[in-house]
Fold this protein.
Amino acid sequence: MKRISKEKIIEEIENTSLKDLGKRAYSVKKELHSDNITTFVIDRNINYTNICWVDCKFCAFKRRINEEDAYILSFDEIDKKIDELIEIGGTQILFQGGVHPTLQLEWYESLVSHIHKKYPDITIHGFSAIEIDYIAKISKCSIKETLQALKNAGLSSIPGAGAEILNDRIRDIIAPKKLDSKEWINVHREAHYLDIKTTATMMFGSVEETKDVVEHFNLIRDLQDETNGFRAFILWSFQPDNTPLKREFPHLQKASSNRYLRLLAASRIYLDNFKNIQSSWVTQGSYVGQLALSFGANDLGSTMMEENVVASAGARNSMNTNEMIKVIRDAGEIPAIRDTAYNILKMC
Ligand code: SF4
């Protein structure tokens, strides 16, 4: 299949009918996934702290260190959450915090090492690029040294969170203190060269235009050409409730399902070197999440036993394993439980 250009995909997002865009994305998906299988992972989000200095304007989760409901989970509290995950057959923790202003690399190493030793069968998928970048800075280490130390302690892979839109004009508006696009790409590049796989994400629906979305697609497609280190792409929409960005731009509304499905289909067509595209039922709801399987997605993400970040901004969808299986079967696909590396663990 001939690689599609930036100009052409912008044209398709803007002007092709939703039906035709979906059909095209679905046929690309079927070339890569002819087995009709839709996967998901049983995992739990653990937000080890909500203390964060970064002040992203789209975030309703972060707290200042002296706020009443600011927290850092103790190792015991984290263990209890992992015990609960194991009880329902889970295999992965998605481990992310706010960016704590003072915690140093030694603290993170001891935390990861504690979990890895106590729960060797649980995959630690954790710490987004902004956390890695800041841990390195505050600990006076390079990104490479930080990643290597966390890998040695038991970190398996890194989520793509914090990419938002990889365009610095947009980042300066929505998250001015966050690392810039080049730095985000660099953390992932360094991880890939250390054989730490990652995922790539995008949060759309704030103040960006279609060309900014495509610039983002292009940056991650280029890095994937170089390293093949991304396991999946995940797209979700800005959730405006309770956020400073909504107060600054009161006209902002939740993105429409049409826009979500258009961008999802475009991602499947443009990101021709990504095998896995996730449906974001957590922000879109189970119905649109299911529809996404006809627009290029081959994976339903995770059961999200606990989700705090987008829930703070108004997205409170939930699904357990049985509901996931039902949604996938109802879409005419075969459900399967996978691990973090997208290996199938069990057909359902
Ligand atoms: S999105 Fe993450 S980095 Fe940004 S303010 Fe919220 S917790 Fe901090």
